[in-house]
């Protein structure tokens, strides 16, 4: 094609394990070259070499425990600069015209929320000009951006996924391929059930639930962005030979033919159940509890309010409030509640934390039009003698808290009852 005629754009993202050393970078570069040969202009997004970001975080924390968040970002964003440059060099060695771009050079404009920045804009001009000159590949350092104050920002751990989707949206890419160390999205974690099956397709909304439940393959924010801008996302292995049919496509639900009621069973081991015993039952109490928890950054998921056993001992009407949160936020939640009590906002007799629970969820867009999924789930757990401690439901998800020792058993039972091993 003559210069200046625009080619279809493909975004390819390589995670940390896919660029862990020079051989793997070379391997990834071959995949990029293949797409160039197919006729694409390619935007490559790279993570830091695996382990590198953790090392950088550790260096920051060791140097300065209460670090300046701007300098944290300056340091931890640097791993991606190395892999972006190396990838561009490797492609050049292979005769592919490529150059690297750090976030500020594009520029990737973000908010100033250091270590949790969000995209504001990604102007196309600079990359478009390069593609128009005949360059085939733009290699972008993932995970980083530029604040309005001119400082380097980062997007939160796992943020390169989100960089990839944002570029795919900004450049109208045909697809966003996420190369990683697994070959797709599974019905459940294969380490927990040997019947886990790789899905050909999964709906954005289902993937969003799975990602926020802790399936670490994609950053939750990247799935949100992909859903909003309808960017088809493909998750595939960088260690295997791959073609257009490899991996799992995360896409709009109307592109999914096979419709199962339940698509997957997700779980989180690191869950805790907290109960505020005997809080006053009055209008505004939930706000008075969950406001301070939110302000303290506690990610509350399930909430149950029930009649307190201790009503008889109290003159006013009281209730027990139970909620779940990640186990590493228990201390923070406790402090927020004690502070709220000290400030006179709430009152409670006790705060009981059960740290031996796990959360298990079944997810599926088919639930919207099928009754009885919850009953089926509860019966399957009962048949295994697994006691359910808390239940929560949404349109496409049913979650339960159970004792952690039953996690594997419960996941396997649910995988069986919803026949997830069968296509
Ligand atoms: N390197 C960053 C991290 O480990 C970003 C990423 O790889 O997505 O979180
Ligand atoms: Mg990742």
From TrEMBL:
SUPFAM superfamilies: ACT-like (SSF55021), Carbamate kinase-like (SSF53633)
Name this polypeptide is given: Aspartokinase
Keywords, comma-separated and alphabetical: Amino-acid biosynthesis, ATP-binding, Kinase, Lysine biosynthesis, Nucleotide-binding, Transferase
Originating organism: Thioclava indica
Enzyme class per UniProt: transferase
Keyword ATP-binding: yes
Pathway as given in its UniProt record: Amino-acid biosynthesis; L-threonine biosynthesis; L-threonine from L-aspartate: step 1/5; Amino-acid biosynthesis; L-lysine biosynthesis via DAP pathway; (S)-tetrahydrodipicolinate from L-aspartate: step 1/4; Amino-acid biosynthesis; L-methionine biosynthesis via de novo pathway; L-homoserine from L-aspartate: step 1/3
One Gene Ontology term, aspect cellular component: cytosol
